[in-house]
């Protein structure tokens, strides 16, 4: 009797989801390897009336996610506000040296960049108008945790 055994690799996933503005979409063409898209996300945190931002540099992963990012490129280049609901994975940081003086740093200072892999985009709004998912399709989708109540903002 012959037995086929396959070894399945297990991974630990760290996923971060949020809402933020899409910026600086670019195609990265490494000398060795396959070209890929990269973008920056200014993620919203804190109270909705006075949000703060956390900035992430993301490598775009997956065909569907890359297609959505490419579809947003013209709007981002036209300085429109492109708001996305996103899922990032594998967060890490990278250090760099500032090459010129800025508002909050001097040339030669060490900076820290937060990085991740953009693996999913759940929603896209351009200047407040829902673009993805298609508004007519969104009405027919089932919602996970439909019994969750949203808090009403204090007036």
UniProtKB/TrEMBL annotation:
Origin superkingdom: Bacteria
Family matches, as Pfam families: DUF3577
InterPro entries the UniProt entry points to: DUF3577
Stated name of the protein: DUF3577 domain-containing protein
Taxonomic path: Bacteria, Pseudomonadati, Pseudomonadota, Gammaproteobacteria, Pasteurellales
